[in-house]
Amino acid sequence: MRYRARMSAGIDQDVAAIQNRLALTPDTMSVAEFVPNEHIMRLSLSFDIDQLRAAADSVIASFHDQGSGFSSKQVTMRPGATDVTQTDLSGRYWFRPDDSYEEVPREDIVDEAAYSDLHPDFSGTYLETVHAELAARFTLGRMRLLMKDSYNCNSWHRDPEPRLHIPIYSNPGSLFVVNHHCTHLPADGSVYFTDTRGYHTAMNGGEQRRLHLVAALVAVPQPL
């Protein structure tokens, strides 16, 4: 009887909690805006979104399809490189792939500092200006254009370094999550710092493509 009484009290608390919640109106506005925290910050620096889009649109045909609705394009490269390698487009990350919860490394370590040259496809374009402006302020690694199809999500993983994101095409269903903080990054020319050394993912739950210009920041390496 005591057990049943405790169960009944617990259920009554559950019913009351839900009723209290239903009396409130959910927030449906801020989910389409940028909500910062210590893991995702909007910088003061910004760029012209129309020129960003024009530069990106000019190279869409040369993106590399990496499968699962994800494709990319180098903006910076290793000096003298002639072929595109897997580490040019992707690289080391850690994640927990199954219900063992064990963290494992995937892919090769990338020497981010080696990507010092602008890809010839962007010579004289607005992305050359963007790269120069960012490089004057930060120690950059690889800079890439990363595109996700609609209804698509990345793995839940962490990277060796933080990154700068400049959304070029986005939609309200395009979200970024770092250490469980989730927010939308509008494509308005803003530059966002994302501490991708923490666990994170990017998702595109909208009907339009998501395209970001992403620059790695050369950081103190984490233990492997």
Describe this structure in words.
This protein is an alpha+beta fold and 224 residues long. It has a single domain (28-217), classed as B-lactam Antibiotic, Isopenicillin N Synthase, Chain (Jelly Rolls), CATH 2.60.120.330. 20% of the residues lie in helices and 32% in strands. The chain is built from four helices and 16 strands. The protein has helices at residues 2-22, 49-57, 86-89, 126-135; strands spanning 40-46, 64-65, 70-74, 76-77, 93-95, 104-106, 117-118, 140-148, 152-153, 157-158, 163-169, 174-178, 181-184, 190-194, 200-204, 210-217. It has a seven-stranded antiparallel beta sheet with strand order 1-14-11-16-8-3-2, with helices on one face. Strand 12 (174-178) and strand 13 form a beta hairpin. The protein is globular. The chain starts with a helix and ends in a 7-residue tail after the last strand.
Mean pLDDT equals 93
CATH superfamily: B-lactam Antibiotic, Isopenicillin N Synthase, Chain
User: What is the C-alpha radius of gyration, as a whole number of Å?
Assistant: 21 Å
- CATH topology group: Jelly Rolls
**Number of β-strand runs:** 16
Biggest beta-sheet profile: 7 strands, antiparallel
Largest beta sheet: strand ordering: 1-14-11-16-8-3-2
Second-tier CATH architecture: Sandwich
Unreliable stretches: none
